[in-house]
Amino acid sequence: MPSFRDMLADAKSQIREVTTAEADEMRGSEDAVVLDVREADEYEQGAIPGAVFIPRGTLESGIEGRIPDKDTPLVVHCAGGVRSALAVKSLQELGYNNAVSVQGGFNQWKDEGRDWSQPQTLNPDQRNRYQRHLLLPEVGDEGQQKLLASKVLLLGAGGLGSPAALYLAAAGVGTIGIIDMDVVDDSNLQRQILHNLERIGDRKVDSAKKTITLINPDVDVVTYDTRLGADNVMDILSGPDGNGWDVIVDGTDNFPTRYLVNDATVKLGIPVVHGSIFRFEGMVTVFDPQHGPTYRDMVPEPPPADMAPSCAEAGVLGVLPGIVGSLQALEAIKILLDLGDPLRGRLLAYDALETTFREYKVQVDPTNEITWANRERITVAEVEGLCAPLPLAPPPS
């Protein structure tokens, strides 16, 4: 029976090994991926920046979810070059024929003074809280840390904002902003699940912050107890740090605000997950000004008031915003993690009475001038009447 030494020698005879200098040069390639197969405690003490971390014990089950393209050049390393050699042999058996093992591993890499850093890692409580996310190869540690570093602004703490806020907070989105100028009323409680009887009369943003903090203390809740208008929209959409929000979840219920938000987000290039509800029907779409149509493409001008009554006038089934708001949270997370196919250029319509979903295409309107390409010339202002934007400013001379 062969010994471990025999197995290692056999593996090394079938793979390609490279020096740390060669590995350092290879990682500069646009297509190459550095793959770290050490254990979690080793990785936490230091790693090569940008490396994909998959412990050796879960490599075979986890590699295809993290790196699906089997032609990807892989620079595989462990601490000293033993586990990485065995890992490359396994990778070859899985069809990854462009993988190499780094002689001397991370220990030699570090001793030679090459680029390394101490990576951000999840603490034990976070590992337990987000365990089901960590099991998903498409999310994992890297994705969860990305969520914790993300910023999402909710326009409204009402029917749509409530379920969206709950699920975004539970998922670990690190900064959640909420803008709402209303107070909790007992008529809200049929659908606005962020609030409860004890908070009737409280400011909605304060009630929302209390609920979110109880769900997940990891989340920093930023509140704006004000009306969103042309005088503050650019400041609010610039975010608490001035670098903007990653995604905006739109739960507004009137056309002037939707057009105002559209013009500001197009100017700033921020994607908007739009949702709306009416009686037994709801719809969700994504307006990403840098990669698809926007609200002005879909609704060039608002319908007559009698054709679009508000929920306060027409009513809404209480559970409906829970479905639509949850879909908005899902789309926001997909955008944050670059997962799947978000609803860019697609409108998803839900009929609660029929329990059916229908999808419609949303096309770019060639006559719409409020575009990312014209962002420097857009004037963000209050809109009235047909909600038409102000003319574009003259191009810079």
Structural description of this entry:
The chain has 397 residues and is of the alpha/beta class. 35% of the residues lie in helices and 15% in strands. It contains 16 helices and 13 strands. It has helices spanning 4-14, 20-26, 40-45, 59-66, 82-93, 105-111, 124-129, 131-134, 140-148, 161-171, 204-215, 233-237, 255-268, 295-298, 311-314, 320-337, and strands at residues 17-18, 33-36, 52-53, 74-77, 99-102, 151-155, 175-179, 220-224, 247-250, 272-278, 281-287, 346-351, 356-361. An eight-stranded mixed β-sheet has the order 8-7-6-9-10-11-12-13, sandwiched between helices. Helix 11 (204-215) links the parallel strand 7 and strand 8. Helix 1 packs across helix 5 and helix 10 (161-171) crosses helix 16. The radius of gyration is 25 Å and the shape is elongated. The N and C termini lie far apart (80 Å). The model has no long low-confidence stretch (mean pLDDT 94).
TL;DR of this structure?
The chain is built from 16 helices and 13 strands. It has helices at 4-14, 20-26, 40-45, 59-66, 82-93, 105-111, 124-129, 131-134, 140-148, 161-171, 204-215, 233-237, 255-268, 295-298, 311-314, 320-337, and strands at residues 17-18, 33-36, 52-53, 74-77, 99-102, 151-155, 175-179, 220-224, 247-250, 272-278, 281-287, 346-351, 356-361.
